[in-house]
Structures are given as C-alpha cells and as structure tokens.
Amino acid sequence: MNSIAFFFQHNYSHFIKMISTRELITQLLQNTTIRNSIKNTDNFVKSYKKVINKEELHTDLEKEIDYRLYKQQYNRLWTIFLGCQKTKTFQIINRITQLINKNDKSVSIIMCQNDSSLSLQTSERLHNLIPNKTKVFVLSSAINTRPIIDDDSIVYNPDFKLLISYIIKYIAGKEGYLYPVIVSLSNDTQITKITTILEILQRPIIDGGYHLFIDEADITYEYLRIRLLKYIINSDDTVNMKNYGTYWVTATGFNLINSRTGYNECKKAHQQDIVLSPNINEIYFDITDDKAVIHNIDNNDFDIFSILSNNNSHFKEQLKDGSYRKIIAISSRITEQQEIIANRIVSIGYNVITINTNGIVLHMENDTKHKWTLDKNIKEVNKLIAIKYHSMTELKMKPLIIIGNRKIDRGVTFHYPSNDSQRLIFTDILIPSIQNWRRAIQIAGRCAGIIKDGTFNNIHYWIETKTYNRIIKYLKYSNEKLENVYGYKTIEELLK
Are 219 and 51 in contact, with CB atoms under 8 Å apart? Predict the structure, then answer.
C-alpha cells in the first residue's frame, strides 16, 4: 500500500472529524513520509478520495494542495504584492525564518533600492525579528564601518573573500555558522559582488543555492534584470536550478506583469502566502481608510507655504496629548530650494526637518541647525526622529514638518508606532501633482501603516485632486486582484 493511503487509514478517526481543510493540509504536510512520496497533486487527491468521502471538500482541497505543496515544491518564482507599509519586509523575514527552520542550505540575498537608509532599515528589522539565527551582511559603501567579519550579528561591508568563505561553510554544514543573509544596495559596485557570489554557487560541487528578494521591484528590477536574469531563469525559460526562490516585493509592481511592459518570469510567478494579522483591516491604515481626511487641492493652488498659512488654525492645533501636528511634505527636488522653503516655514512658527543629499537636518528658529545621522545603534529613520523628538523639549513646542523629495518618497517608514513613550505618528501629509502613479501611491503610503490602535484619531491628506484620483483607482484594483488571492493562479492568470 502506498504511504499516503496507509497514513490516511491509520489516522482516519482523527481526520474524519476535521472541519478545516487548511488544518487538514497542515497536519498532512507535517508527515515527512507523505511529503516525500507526493509526486503530483492528482495522485494525492486520488489517495485522499479513496479513504475519506467528503465531496464538498474536494475543490478546496485541490486548491490547498496545489498551492501549499505542489507549487511550493516545484515553482520557485514568487511575488509579494502588498500595500505600502503593510509588512512587506516582515513577509521577507517570515520566509527567511521558514528557511532557517527547515535548515535550508542557501543564502538569502535582499536587493534594496539604492539608498543606504533602506539597507540599514532592513538589516535592523532582520536583527530584531530573527535574533541569534542569522548573520547579516550589509553591502553599502556609504556605511563607514569596519570591513571585517566579527562576532556581531550584522556585518557592514565585509571582506569579500571572508564573505564567500562564510557562505560556503554554512552551506557545507559547518558547526557554529548562522544562516547568511546579504542586504545589498542596487548599484554597480554591489551588484558585481552579488553576481560573483551567484556565479560561485552555480558550481556543481557546492550543494546549495540562493533565494533572491527584489525589494521595491517596480523600480529596481528593470536595472537589476540585465545582470541577474540568468541566475533566475535559463535561456529556455526554465528556472535556474540553483535559484531556490526569487521574490519580487512591491506595492506598485503592475509594470512588471502587465501585457505590454511586463516580464515573462514575473507573469509566471505566484503570489507568496502572505502572513497577516487576523484583524489587519482593523489596525492597518491607508488613504482609502474611513479615517483618512481628504483635502483636494487644485494643482494651481498647491504651495506648501500657502497651505500652511491658509490653514493656520489646523496646523497650529494642539493635540490631546499636548503635542502639535507632525507633517510630511513633498517639495522641490532641488536641495537648495528645500533649504529656502525650510527657512520660510521656520519663520512662521514650525520646526522643520529636511531629508535630502545633505542628510537629515533639523532647522529651528534663530538659524539653529542640527544634523542627525544613522549609525550602527540607530539604523531606522523613524526611530531616529522619534528618539530625537522625545528627547528635545523644544521640538514638542511647535508643529514639526518633514520636507524632502526623492529621499522620502518610498521605502522609508516615518510612523514609529511603539507602545512606549517613544511613539510618534504623523498627522498630515502634503502631496502635490505627481504624474507617475506608482510614485504617487508610494508617497501617499508614507502615512500608511499598522497604526490604528486605541489612541489613533485620523490623518489629513492635503493632495492635488488628479493625483488623489490616480491613487484611489489603483488601490481599489490592486486590493481586489491581488491582496486576497494567494498561490492558486499565476499573476498573469489573476489579471485576466
């Protein structure tokens, strides 16, 4: 008797009482004998039907098996389509945790947008959520720290030969080596290092592979694809055998999968199984939420200084906790103009933070400036701002506004929704006309997040009208098509 039928018969009394198909599949897949004996979905379903006659479960069962085992085992191209600030990084970390738990002989490589603050943010979250189980290597020449492998769980700019050696020794099963994760910027210098690692792992003598996570894929993958494609798929469109999984991570990635501009490898991908809190709709906030207060502004009337001045009573309002409003504003791309705007806004009673090529700079009255920097101790922009805000009494005495453009339009988190005294939630965002709909959604997403707790009130969007309409149209389509459907169809099939 084959092992599947044997297992069913000897556990019949237990399984016949089960109501949840999902629970049934989870229990079955915990049995190594069954997991190893399943060659395809059809054989598994036939074995199931021979023993348990629950006709109403067959359709759901086949879907569950198709996703949870067959596709998981044989398909290695995945997307993580998920809204802005809706735990995309956590989904990456959750997948890496699964790999660690099953002792996967691989290295995980996270390709970040080419901004050192994003690589620091990602490495910090890895460190916090998977303590003592990973060795994180950050490839970013902008971070000036010791280029050595030491006892720290995060290593910045490691010696390249030592990095290669570490990966190979881990895959070989050498004692004392933690699961290696590389967090890399997407620039030529770092991509060359990544392709060298991938080329070495192609060698048959190395019994292991890699997982590639392409973060902010809607803007990074076009550039990365030229160098990385052969390590994802072969020339005949089959998946590279050393590619244990490629994951395109994005909130706005329809350019990767639509019929005109999309890539075949992305269209063939399946949506990864997303792990979200059961009450996600109660705690997640974005611009579509009932508590989003929308102020539509004509393009000709959009000016940061004028909006603040004309709505002085709103922006100078003292909040219930005694503090004042915290605001994000998208301004000119030119750094010098941002500095001029900052000085004007300071003159009418605000504290201003500019984030641009000059770094993170606080502007206060009497031409006082403080430059803040991320380092090995504080690696996330939101945490840095929250700590500074709560440690400087003068910051709490006026409204605070962040001004920037390319350095704040995507990826970076601003809310700091901790449960302690460091909590910092932004109350307003000013968004001018943005023609690129993907960028518009990302900007609006700077005020999104898992932030709706007992103290949450609302967030005001001061937004150019046509830009608002573009954002809402996409988010409704995206949520309907992708966010609630996992694995049963390829991305291409879902969009038909």
Answer: no
Give the strand pairing for 179-185 and 134-139.
parallel
434 and 330 in a common domain: yes
206: domain CATH number is 3.40.50.300
* Residues 352/342, Cβ–Cβ less than 8 Å: yes
Number of CB atoms found within 10 A of residue 17's CB: 7
How many domains does one find in the chain?
3
Torsion of CA 474, 475, 480, 484, to 10 degrees: 140
Question: 19-29 b/e with 16+ CB inside 10 Å = b?
Answer: eebeebbeebb
Give the closest residue to 42 by CA, choosing from 25, 66, 23. 66
Band of residue 110 on the pLDDT scale cut at 50, 70, 90: very high
DSSP 458-492: -EEEEEEHHHHHHHHHHHHHHIIIIIT--SSSBHH
pLDDT tens string 330-374? 998 899 999 999 999 999 999 999 998 888 999 999 888 899 987
Residue 108 lies in a domain: yes
Q: Are residues 207 and 258 in the same domain?
A: yes
pLDDT at 299: 86
Q: Are strands 77-81 and 106-112 parallel, antiparallel or unpaired?
A: unpaired
Find the domain containing 57 and state its range. 3-70
Centroid of chain to Cα 120: 13
Q: Is 495 among the domain residues?
A: no
Cβ contacts of 353 within 8 Å, gap of 6 or more: 360, 361, 362, 363, 385, 400, 401, 402, 403
Both 155 and 122 in a single domain?
yes
Residues 342 and 408 in one domain: yes
Residues 213 and 345 both lie in one domain: no
Q: What is the DSSP string of 312-326?
A: HHHHTPBPTTS-B-E
Same-domain status, 84 and 145:
yes
Question: What tokens were used for 304?
Answer: 């940061």
> Of 32, 52, 70, which residue constitutes the final position of a domain?
70
* CA distance to 146, 196, 201, 208, 211, per residue, from 204 (Å): 33, 15, 8, 9, 17
Select from 227, 408, 401 the least CA-distant residue to 327: 401
Rounded CA separation 206/170 (Å): 11
Alpha-carbon gap, residue 442 to 218, rounded angstroms: 11
In this prediction, residue 492 carries a pLDDT of 63
15-29, 115-129, 378-392, 442-456: segment of lowest average pLDDT:
15-29
299 residue type, one letter: N
Q: Whole-prediction pTM value? A: 0.77
Residue 431, SS3 per DSSP: strand
